[in-house]
Amino acid sequence: MQLFDTIASMGHEQLVICNDSSAGYRGIIAVHSTTLGPALGGTRFLQYASDEEAIVDALRLARGMTYKNAVAGLNLGGGKSVIIGNNKTADREMIFRAHGRFVESLGGRYITAEDVGTSTADMDFVHMETKNVSGLAGRSGDPSPVTAHGVFRAIQASARERWGSDDLSTRTVSVQGAGHVGYYLLKELHEAGAKLVVTDIDVERVKQVVAEFGARSVAPEEIYGVQADVFAPCALGGIINDATIPQLACEIVAGGANNVLLEERHGVVLEERGILYAPDYVANAGGVINVYSELAGWSSARAFRKADEIYDTILKVFAIAKHDNVPTYVAADRLAEQRIKAVGSMVRTWPQWPNK
Predict the structure, then answer these.
(1) Nearest residue to 72 via CA among 335, 331, 330
(2) pLDDT tens per residue, range 23-79
């Protein structure tokens, strides 16, 4: 692996390789950009197949956080960290305190939070060593309602773009995943009068939303072919692929899952099929908005108001896509790059960083 060439090609500022043998800790912190502010991104705890795989994952995810934070209109750059190991281990304090010390060593350039394989309890251990951590127990709370609200607004904006109205009372929405985000999204869609079709590998979750929201349930493998106006993936990533796209019987794809497109070319295939795609990191930005609300000291109501702005952001993405004649996933990147360039070009004054 040509490490410096890889970092340069992806535009990263910094890559930190961390080790504390006494704590059983091996970590990687990737800082992609601090143009908009300190780099924010969660910590993943996974047993990677190789060190190279872990590094590439950290770099890829850090870059994605730069774009997500920029499009969300936050004063944050993008970063990510990964811890290599068995995330089922019960001995977690020393691992995460060691991680906290390395986060602290960056002097505020990077702020971490929970992610895959980590929890608020883990972040409490990190907090013992650094203040540069968010997602703590008893602070901003469960991000799922804010995330789901942003996805709901993305669906409304997509409906306006496709049909000229964001009224969902005559629309059918199929939702893949009835977990935390999926549940709250189903709740808002139900309140908006939408007809609902749902699936989840957890049978009890499906039973709950069928009972509460009058949804129709289908088997997990059947959700792609459901006749619906909108398909909302809220579970796994990579589900828009060569196998599933031919099955889709919808006009819009907009959901809360990350990395919905297995490959970027699948965004092009959606467009060729006439399916409008609301880019996932724009639609699900409510999660990072919720984290930022903790850092900035916002109220829950203000976090929801900020998530409301996803409606207008999605419409901007569609406008760029039409003007530049590019797929919507490319348009989302361009919108993020516009903001990064605009802020980065501003005259530097003293003090260097604005207030929150």
Answers:
(1) 335
(2) 999 999 999 999 999 999 999 999 999 999 999 999 999 999 999 999 999 999 999
How far, in Å, CA of 224 to CA of 268, rounded? 18
- 351 phi and psi angles, rounded to 5 deg: -75, 165
Domain boundaries, the chain: 3-65+77-127, 144-339
**Percent of the chain, pLDDT > 90?**
85
Tokens representing 90 are 């019960």
How far, in Å, CA of 113 to CA of 324, rounded? 36
Contacting residues for 244 by C-beta, under 8 A, at least 6 apart: 224
Give the catalytic positions in this structure.
80
Domain formed by 3-65+77-127, architecture: 3-Layer(aba) Sandwich (3.40)
- What's the pTM value of the predicted model, to 2 decimals? 0.88
Mean pLDDT score, 108-129: 93
The CATH class for the domain spanning 144-339 reads alpha beta
Does 144-339 match 3-65+77-127 at the fold level?
yes
Structure tokens at 227: 């006749």
Q: Say what the pLDDT of residue 79 is.
A: 97
